[in-house]
Write a structure and sequence with these properties.
Strands 1-4-2-3 form a four-stranded antiparallel beta sheet. With 98 residues, the protein is an alpha+beta fold. It contains three helices and four strands.
């Protein structure tokens, strides 16, 4: 019996920033909490930049404003769920009410 490593799944997705103030500290914090709840490596892409979705400073460096299209790429055993959870979070305006 051989121990074959599990095939790492790579899943991609996109979301649009709908909140008026863009991806500032509070929504970025929610995004980090969400991404950190998964084992998969999760990256965000915007304007030729890629950052770790589990890094608050990384996300803030994207300086994404309202209407920005953010790409997501997750790799790992729970990649599908990670991408879908982040898309759902964005659809719910990161649970932030102004």
């Amino acid at each position: 019996m051989t121990n074959r490593p599990m095939k790492k799944e790579c899943v991609k997705g996109k979301f649009v920033i709908a909140n008026d103030r863009g991806l500032h500290t509070r929504p970025s914090t929610e995004l980090v909490k969400c991404a950190s709840s998964f084992k998969s490596k999760v990256l965000l892409f915007y304007h030729k930049q890629s950052v770790n979705a589990k890094s608050l400073l990384g996300i803030l460096m994207l300086a994404a404003s309202k209407g920005a299209r953010i790409g997501i790429e997750a790799e790992g055993e729970d990649a599908e769920e990670a991408v879908q959870s982040i898309i759902d979070l964005a659809k719910n305006n990161f649970y932030i009410k102004y």
